[in-house]
Amino acid sequence: MTKLQKQAKLERIAKAIQSRECGLQIALDCQNPVVGDGNPQAELMFVGEAPGAKEDLLGRPFVGASGKFLDQMLESIGLTREDVFVTNIVKYRPPKNRDPSPHEIAVCLPYLVSQIAVIKPRLVVLLGRHSMNVFLPKLKISEAHGQIFIKSKITFLPLYHPAAALYNSKLRNTLKADFAQIANILEKSKA
Question: What are the φ/ψ torsions at residue 101 (nearest 5 degrees)?
């Protein structure tokens, strides 16, 4: 599939998300649906939990403090946002940044699955326990972070969420070490 074909398919998914036709109350209450953005031909995709206040305001994923930290982490491995695709499981901000409900995750999951199917990244990095447990249920982030899991021919790498690392210096060092593996994982997946 060409870049233009992928872009067109991603735009159709984005329109469905932006139409708020899913019927979720959070879709009706949010300021801006957060579709995701980045390179439609990305080898690397990052999946967070749900938009926060700043993301809801701007309609883009990871634009607050967590996003700045994610950008720094990307830079540490020689990448930028233009090289990757960044999105969330839930595309609408839950009120007061509460955890998304299982129903909200279930309703939004087909959008994410479609995005993964279009982009076909070599590696999907799951940021935090909520995104990890959607694809790898029953695992604990404290035990699974930094390990590769393959499910349905998709390679997943669970990592601590950048927000957690901002508030806990021990997690920050762990996240940096886990993040440093990404280049090697991508290289090995080409072989």
Answer: -75, 160
Look up residue 7 and give its two tokens: 């872009």
Can you tell me the distance from the alpha carbon of 16 to that of 108, in angstroms, rounded to the nearest whole number?
11
∠ CA 133-115-82 to the nearest 5 degrees? 100
Asked if 44 and 112 touch (Cβ cutoff 8 Å), the reply is no
Q: Which residue has the tokens 């469905």?
A: 16
Q: Please list, in sequence order, all residues whose beta carbon lies within 8 angstroms of the beta carbon of residue 160, skipping any fewer than 6 positions away.
A: 127, 128, 141, 145, 171, 174, 175, 178
User: In whole angstroms, what is the distance from residue 10 CA to residue 71 CA?
Assistant: 23
The conformational region for residue 146 under phi > 0 = left, psi -120 to 50 = alpha, else beta, is left
pLDDT 10s digits, 76-130: 999 999 999 999 999 999 998 899 999 999 999 999 999 999 999 999 999 999 9
pLDDT at 189: 77
**Dmax of the chain from CA atoms?**
46
DSSP state of 81: G
Domain 3-190 = CATH 3.40.470.10: yes
Q: Are 43 and 121 in contact (CB under 8 A)?
A: yes
Domain boundaries, the chain: 3-190
